[in-house]
Amino acid sequence: MRRTFRSRAHDQRGAALVEFALVIIPLLMLILGAVTGGLAYNRKITLTDAARVAARYATTHAIPGGWSPLETPPCTTTPASSPLGEWLVDVACYAIPNAQGELDEGTSGRMICVAYIPPSGLSSMLEWGTSNTGSITTGHSCPGATPPASISDTIVEVVVERTANLDAVVWNHTLTLTSAAFGRCENCSV
């Protein structure tokens, strides 16, 4: 009788090991998913703050009047072609350090877009990809943002975007994090 009890106890130890092996994989997936989800959420908050700060900077930063075509903003090697172009590049440059490294040049999936939308509706837009170079186009708004329907004041629009990975051991997903901010220009006139 005593011998039977011992063999059953030994069998139970093996069952506990099998149960642990079955539970550890989903548990690790859940923990790693929660950690990477939290990191992606933190990136989204950082991008939202960078867009908001850049839009606020744009609303109070005057478009340069005494402009020289030889001036080059500090975060790019491409000189602007007009005072408005210099202002758009300056606002885009202002978003980069406020993103705490999330919008640095070369970041995967990065996009920075700044648009100047006057009441006439003929907007000017600067869009940068993974490098700090891009052209200024007219008549467009930034992708991923919806400007107000009726515009009675000059509006500035800042949209920032980057990709982030959500990993959970055997499963991963690439997220596109986009944040947009709008502001009514207080000191913007071309």
Protein described:
With 190 residues, the chain is of the alpha+beta class. The protein has one domain. The chain has two helices and five strands; from the N terminus they run ααβββββ. The chain has a five-stranded antiparallel β-sheet with strand order 3-2-1-4-5, with helices on one face. Strand 4 and strand 5 form a beta hairpin. Helix 1 runs antiparallel to helix 2 (83-95). The longest helix has 59 residues, at 2-60.
Helices and strands in order, then pairings?
Blueprint: H1 2-60, H2 83-95, E1 111-117, E2 124-128, E3 136-138, E4 155-168, E5 171-184
Antiparallel strand pairs: 1-2, 1-4, 2-3, 4-5
Helix pairs in contact: 1-2
- Placed side by side, the strands forming the largest sheet appear as 3-2-1-4-5
pLDDT below 50 for ≥5 consecutive residues: which ranges? 67-71
Mean pLDDT: 80
Query: How large a portion of the residues is in β-strands, by DSSP E?
Result: 15-25%
Reading the helices and strands in chain order gives HHEEEEE
How many domains? The number is 1
Q: Kindly report how far apart the N and C termini lie.
A: 97 Å
Q: In DSSP terms, counting alpha (H) and pi (I) runs of 4 or more, how many helices?
A: 2
The major beta sheet can be summarized as: 5 strands, antiparallel
Q: Count the strands?
A: 5
What is the C-alpha radius of gyration, as a whole number of Å? 26 Å
Shape: elongated
Helix content: 25-40%
Q: Structural class of the secondary structure composition?
A: alpha+beta
